[in-house]
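Researcher: Re-running this chain for the archive, since the previous output was lost when a drive failed. Same request as before.
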Amino acid sequence: MKVFLVYLWRFWMLILATVMTLIFFLPVYIFSIRKKDYKTCYFFIRIWAMGIFYGTGFRYRLINKTNQKIDKNQAYVIISNHTSLMDVMLPCILFPNHPLCYVGKKELERIPIFGTVYKRVCVMVDRKSARSRAEVYRRCAERMRDGQSVVIFPEGGVPDDTSVILDDFKDGAFILSTKHHFPIAVYTFVGLKEMFPFDNKKGYPGRVDIFFNDILSPEDPLKELKEKAHVEMRTSLAEKLK
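Model: Regenerated structure tokens:
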């Protein structure tokens, strides 16, 4: 019975996401055509993300572990751990004043309707192509100079081994930060691995804890930034597991 209810709940999420995508497809598509309209485009993207997140039965609590504050006039490289599809929704909810650009997998552009908009508002990367991976930094930097912040999951994907608490970080987010001089906003999402995993037989609605860990300076060495971000996320995850 429990598994049946989980399947029913996930089916509701699928219906909700489909309806929300159909509703917001046209305004997002239209306002993504010109750079100067992207703030308006992002307004609709954010409503789409909030509708799916809250409509699926989730809520969140933000726990600030730093005395630093997000500057609404500053573009950031935003990073977090990645364990769930819902991870994608949270940065949109957390950043109302920062139009966001995601670095995403090229394969997702094949999804009907969603893929049409996805390839306009995201920077896509073909992970099998070294040229594509190298081109990402330039394209992200252009977006940031236009006033957008970039969301990157530094683990590079969700680990196949579900016992992995936090996988090793790829260099991409830290190269973008140090090379183009944008600060890194570090967040840790706790709970979604259990609440909305990629295993369709598991999950439940509830509260997600979000740790705002730090804002890291792009003046620090890449290796140091990478290690510090990993330690801070790992510490937040460990604290919650106690």
